[in-house]
Write the structure tokens for this entry.
Amino acid sequence: NTQECTIAPKMYKTYKWIITFAIMCIMVQKVVSQTNTTGDLDDESSSSFAILMMLGLLIITFFVGYALHLTQFPYLHEAGVAVIAGMIVGAVVRYAFTDSQETIHRAILFDQETFFLLLLPPIIFESGYSMKRGNFFNNIGSIALYALLGTLISMFSIGGLIYLVSNTLGWTSFQMTFLDSMIYGSLLSATDPVSVLSIFSSLNVDKNLYSNVFGESVLNDAIAIVLYRTLTHYVGSEFEFNTIFLAIGDFLLSLGGSFLIGLIVGLLSALLFKYTQMSKIPSLELCLLTCYAFCAYMFAEGLRLSGIVSILFCGITMAHYTYNNLSRQSQLVSRKMFQVLANICETIVFVYLGLAIFGYDESEQQYDIGLIFLSIPVIFISRAVNIFPLTGLLNITRSDEKISLPYATMMWFSGLRGAIAFALALEVPTDAHIVIRTSTLMIVIFTVIILGGLTVPMLKLLKIPMGIKIEDDYTRSNKWIRFDRKYVKPIFTRNKPMRGNAEVTPIPDMPIDLEGNTHSDSTPSSSFLETLSTESS
């Protein structure tokens, strides 16, 4: 095949850019060393070099991602590129830069606080704001089952099996206690299939498969975080089996409170834009829109609830109500703005994961080979125990649209581990914290690079349909939608309630200039102009 023969040379050319950047890092190190002969660099200069490295890594990652889209190389994705690029540059920083440049080494470390407070909120909010709400809520039953019960099954399965092979059988160098094993199981239960979902979206995979994988991963992260935090509260005290049930109760309280916070903040933003003239100043309008999104996350986190659930439902609420009260310019810009911001944050996260391999001192790099290699089949087993029985239970209760075996197998395969699992592993308050951190990092890198790279071949092997035009099913009428259109939307939106099954259709993407004017190669059709006049304020 001619196309396959040209892929390898093109991929070689793209990776030459990564090697070139690594050489540039060594040259920067020489400059730094020469500067140190006359005087040490201050923290500001060292931080500038670290930020320069990060910007260079982002540029290279986006460039290689562009090349991957051109070549349609199926075995590597942008997330994998970011991790590999981070590993290469992390090795250069570790072994080429002098030990005196502690500021640079600190700047490339994966920081839990930066991740949860700065990088994660834009990613989750964009997921809710651009979500196809109809597809999500049409599958809310299966999503809730996989996320709620599935995460508990996963935590018990991983924790129990790790305790068996580590403490009972002694197959690992470090013997994990029961509490250590359950904490390890809770953080490894957090799935983060960013690369898989991106591939699903680009290939237009079936909407129900996409919605189930996406919805389960988002809610599953929130559940795993709450379970992890609850378990860590019992470190240093006597751990009993009923602790797990207390954790479940805390989770239900956290889920309900977080949902209410996201809903209330989203509705307040809708009322603000409805009863003010913010549309006259689009830039201020967008600033307030962004501030409201972050308010939901920070409020929930400040109350020790789930910021992920809060900002997700805040994004869904704002897309459903607030979006209709925005000016035409803000409607056009907001979706792309949040998409770009989320893409940058995701790439930074994966770059940091690659850098983390070489970011710690040797005293903090204790690798338990037995635990790492045993954890990989354990997470596959726990994922299977989670997905397949729950799928069978769902199919029993469904009269139509049953989940087929190929779809269930793809959901099982899509259980990648990501930055949330590693971020939680950074603050494990037990003697096993180093082993848990290094093992989690290796598992994350394995799933992102290997499993993420095998997503397209797996779709083809399972013969899952691709190239399907995904449309939102929110136009399908039911009692909740009719109630929303008749009573709720008139309260929170400027637009008149829609008639029949009609629903507000997002304005198509069109280039805009700095003044907010749109441009297109062809004159908009009269139907588009009519839609615009009825849907825009």
The longest helix spans residues 2-38. The two ends are 53 Å apart (CA to CA). The mean pLDDT is 78.
